[in-house]
Amino acid sequence: GAIVVGPKLSGDPFYPQDLDLLMTLANQAGVAVKNAQLYAQVLLAHEHLNNIVSTIESGVVAVDATGQVSLFNRAAEQLMGLAAERVRNQPLSVLPECVGDMLSETITGGGAKTQPEVQLSDGTTTRPIICTTSPLHDQAGAVLGAVAVFSDLTPLKALEVERQRAERLAYFEMLASGIAHEIKNPLVAVKTFAQLLPRRRGDDRFVAEFGRVVTHEIAKMERLLDRLRALSRPGERPRHLIDLRSPIGDAIEAMRPVFAEKSAVLSAAMGQSPCTILGDHSELEQLFLNLLMNAHEVTAPGGMVRVEVATSADRAIVAVVDTGPGVPPELLERVFEPFFSTKERGSGLGLAICASIAQTHGARIKATNRDAGGAVFTVDFPVAVTATIPVSA
Ligand SMILES: Nc1ncnc2c1ncn2[C@@H]1O[C@H](COP(=O)(O)OP(=O)(O)OP(=O)(O)O)[C@@H](O)[C@H]1O
Ligand SMILES: [Mg+2]
After folding, report:
1. Do 170 and 337 meet the contact criterion of CB atoms below 8 Å apart?
2. Which among 332, 321, 302, 301 has a CA at the least distance from the CA of 375?
3. Which one of the ligands is nearest to 299 CA?
4. Pocket of ligand 1 (CB under 6 A)
5. Among all ligands shown, which has an atom nearest to the Cα of 295?
6. Are residue 145 and residue 187 in the same domain, yes or no?
7. Could you read off the pLDDT of 169-200 as tens digits, one per residue?
8. Buried b (16+ CB within 10 A) or exposed e, 359-371
9. Are 266 and 259 a contacting pair, CB within 8 Å?
10. Which of 24, 50, 241, 357 has the highest CB neighbour count under 10 A?
11. Which atom of ligand 1 sits closest to the CA of residue 347?
């Protein structure tokens, strides 16, 4: 900017002290103009922030270090069924307990917290919400207060239910078409022989062949039914606290002779201490038998398969590692589908049964490949929380 001055009314010239005065005046005016501009910018930024906070769909509540509510946006009003004017500048005890408790813990403990699913009521409807609280610090690191951000999970949950329904339907379709396919071939053989029987009942060779084929095809259908039963039954048997290493050990012992036949090595590293989970011994033995049978089939004579158990505080991860060709990357997810098989005589139910048993044990099963070649099937179990019995002195 500039200051324009005219001649003095007295007609005197401008002296150096007049110029000093004018300089000071100009500087002060400059500072005042700058401050006014900054203030306008701050107001604008504040308004912008307020607009964002009031229009976002997540509830936002801020409290100061004493626990008084300083900010309560529109979404928070709707989700909590509380009017902002009745909450602002009030202690956080006016807030619903679930959010209020998290905020007070964040102020006192100073740490951020997330609750993935809490129930929040607005007085008429109770909704599942996800809530995150974070402390607000000044530049020196002192806690100035805390902010809670929470969102309604209802639409997400509805989508999840929809997705699960679609998945179940797809699984059912896959199962139905697989069963139809597996039963059709033996049925065709039985039907053909049965149609020929009235005419050729006097032909002893035909009757003997009839008996052989029909028995064989019916046995095939019985095996299929057994496997289907294993697929549908897991979870029905009672769960006990068991050492996971025990069913794995039994599956390994059962497979030793067939590995020895191929001169293949089957080794295990299962740790020294028990690994307690809640489960059913025979279902888990079946799971590891299926994995070991697959591993055995891809192992060349002289090759090796290794079973490893790694435990942390809350998980037990079992890995069955082989030295076969591995699973083609595009099939890593598909191998768990019922009736998916790349083997000429495979039912494709082995891994589907594994996945079903894993699921009812709260475990996750996954197929990967080793960089060095070979497949790794991991089953990740939650470790059981065992009660500690207090010892009295
Ligand atoms: N260790 C492995 N290495 C490479 N591919 C594997 C391995 N285990 C399974 N697969 C692949 O996954 C497919 C499905 O396995 P799954 O055990 O379900 O059925 P299957 O072995 O073909 O039949 P079944 O178990 O009835 O004998 C197999 O056909 C194979 O292509
Ligand atoms: Mg198999």
Report:
1. no
2. 321
3. 1
4. 290, 294-295, 298, 322, 324, 326-327, 335, 340-343, 346-352, 375
5. 1
6. no
7. 888 888 888 889 889 988 998 999 999 999 99
8. ebbebebbbeeee
9. yes
10. 357
11. 26
Ion ligand 2: protein residues whose beta carbon lies under 5 Å: 294, 350
**Ligand 2 centroid, distance to 240 Cα (angstroms):** 27
pLDDT of 259-291, one tens digit each? 999 999 999 999 998 999 999 999 999 999 999
Question: How remote is the CA of residue 223 from the centroid of ligand 1, in Å?
Answer: 17
Give a yes or no: residue 391 inside a domain.
no
What are the distances in angstroms from CA 274 to CA 65, 111, 238, 270? 48, 35, 20, 9
Query: What is the residue range of 339's domain?
Result: 240-382
Domain with residue 286: its CATH number is 3.30.565.10
Say if residue 368 is in the same domain as residue 346: yes
Contacts of 124 (CB under 8 A, 6+ apart): 81
Which of 40-54, 195-209, 295-309 is least confident? 40-54
Going by pLDDT thresholds of 50, 70 and 90, the confidence category of residue 235 is: low
Q: Distance from the CA of 275 to the center of ligand 2, in angstroms?
A: 26
